[in-house]
Write a structure and sequence with these properties.
By secondary structure, the chain is of the alpha/beta class. Helix content is 41%, strand content 21%. The chain has two domains: 212 residues, Carbamate kinase; 141 residues, VC0802-like (2-Layer Sandwich), CATH 3.30.2130. The strands form three sheets. Strands 3-4-2-1-7-9-10-8 form an eight-stranded mixed β-sheet, with helices on both faces. The chain is globular, with a radius of gyration of 24 Å. The chain starts with a strand and ends with a helix. The structure holds adenosine-5'-diphosphate, aspartic acid and magnesium ion.
Length: 440
């Protein structure tokens, strides 16, 4: 069970989620917690001040954060013993953060990773102390000992499996096993993380290696909605998604799930349920291996996309052209999301423009290059196999008034994607909800 930032966002909420994850007699819970909401953003802010050699800025944020955390202690615990214990722990945490202020401006990437890790370290220790005070048999396993990434920055599943199983065998008689989401070590043994929103990934990785009955992602909304509720009003929860559909929605911007967290659950065949801590009895969304034929499930949007078009008359009937183009992206470790080709050109999209100048420079050897920034991928997900006559037409009809830069259909059976300008995102999402989900 994974509980996100809002779900552990205040002492009151910590007490409520503790009720949810306290197992019934004879059962055990494995719980992954995020940092309290807002904390990771504050830690990013602190690192940012340090990089810019502004120790005063960093200290101000640290002081504010410390006041906030210290104020939680009074409310969360009922005995002086646990208040003192937690205050002592939090003091050591803030001392650690302040030790980096002294280092500015020589703060490194590795230091930043340690700073970012402290949100989850604090929330899990606070909840563990609370559960101990309540008399539960709880043990906190450090995610830094059980979650590791490999040379490519990908989770090392074998390590995670062995390390987790070893800890569980070592600590047999506990009702609740707690760990931090998001944080891990990399192949060099340094503190690292699974990127923003990574607690979902931690939960799915651990659930997959332990082959649990079900992975539960508890958040602040009643499951995956059929469109982005931050942009469109009156969205509806989707009760069931096929693994591939959920993976596409997560990858293409549905913030409720980390972009790649569904993969390990899918490979292990472990169902994932999205549930709402504000309404624990609501059914949420079940993600499993079942396909509901002929249904369009949901729409999502991925921002900050860059489109690169390469045109070349030499491409006409040439083989090997696409390989040369793709090799350039590979050399610069830049993933391609969408791709469209014609006889004289190819357009691709990327979401990480950090190597864009180098990529464009090399592509110019092969053709005329045009770059469009501030684009957005809107992705329609469902059973979109080509046998389902008319489904892509419905999606295309919905965007009839929008200038569409690229369309991708047929890469998988579960998605049709449109590349549009960021400024057209809202009206595209609204138009899709109107056409696809109204009166359903
Ligand atoms: P947590 O802190 O629990 O991980 P997140 O903020 O990461 O929570 O994810 C939950 C939020 O995702 C929701 O509050 C909602 O605003 C947003 N969201 C975006 N797209 C969707 C969607 N399709 N369905 C549900 N929630 C979505
Ligand atoms: N605390 C991390 C973040 O804010 C990880 C997570 O919440 O999933 O990105
Ligand atoms: Mg999240």
């Amino acid at each position: 069970m994974k509980f996100g930032g809002t779900s552990v966002g205040s002492p009151q909420r910590m007490k409520e989620v503790a009720q949810i994850f306290t197992p019934k007699a004879g059962e055990q819970s494995f719980v992954v917690l995020s940092a309290m909401s807002g904390t990771t953003n504050n830690l990013v802010e602190i690192s940012d001040y340090l990089y810019r050699n502004n120790p005063e800025g960093a200290s101000t944020v640290i002081n504010q954060l410390e006041q906030k955390y210290m104020a939680h202690v009074e409310e969360l615990y009922s005995t002086q013993e646990f208040r003192d214990k937690t205050i002592q722990f939090l003091q050591s945490e803030f001392e650690l953060l302040r030790s980096f202020v002294k280092k500015a401006p020589t703060v490194t990437d590795a230091d930043e990773k340690i700073i970012l890790a402290q949100g989850e370290v604090m929330s899990t220790n606070m909840v563990t102390n609370y559960l101990q005070e309540q008399g539960h048999r709880v043990i906190l396993l450090s995610a830094l000992d059980i979650v590791r990434t490999d040379e490519n920055g990908e989770p090392d599943l074998n390590f995670i499996r062995e390390a987790t199983v070893k800890r569980l065998r070592e600590f047999l008689d506990y009702d609740i096993y707690l760990t931090q989401g998001f944080i891990c070590r990399n192949f060099r043994g340094e503190v690292d993380n699974l990127k923003r929103g990574g607690s979902d990934y931690t939960a799915c990785l651990i659930g997959a290696v332990l082959q649990v009955e079900e992975i539960q992602i508890w958040t602040d909304i009643d499951g995956m909605h059929n469109n982005d509720p931050r942009v469109v009003e009156h969205t509806e929860p989707v009760r069931q998604l096929y693994f591939e559909e959920a993976a596409e929605l997560a990858y293409f911007g549905a913030k409720i799930l980390h972009p790649t967290c569904i993969q390990p659950a899918k490979f292990a065949g472990v169902p994932v349920r999205l549930l709402n801590t504000m309404d624990p009895t609501a059914p949420g969304t079940l993600i499993n291996n079942e396909i509901q034929h002929g249904t369009i499930k949901a729409v999502a949007a991925k921002d900050n996309i860059t489109c690169i078009q390469i045109q070349s008359s030499r491409m006409l009937l040439a083989y090997g052209f696409l390989r040369k183009v793709f090799e350039i992206f590979e050399q610069h470790k830049t993933a391609i999301d969408m791709i469209c080709t014609s006889e004289v050109g190819v357009s691709v999209t990327i979401d990480n423009p950090s190597r864009l100048p180098e990529i464009v420079g090399e592509l110019k050897k092969y053709g005329t290059v045009q770059v469009n920034r501030d684009m957005c991928i809107v992705c329609v997900v469902g059973d979109l196999a080509s046998g389902n006559v008319g489904f892509e037409t419905r999606a295309c009809m919905a965007v009839k008034k929008i200038p569409v830069r690229m369309i991708s259909y047929g890469g998988s059976n579960y998605n049709i994607s449109f590349l549009i300008k960021a400024e057209d995102k809202k009206r595209t999402l609204l138009a899709l909800s109107e056409t696809l989900f109204k009166d359903e």
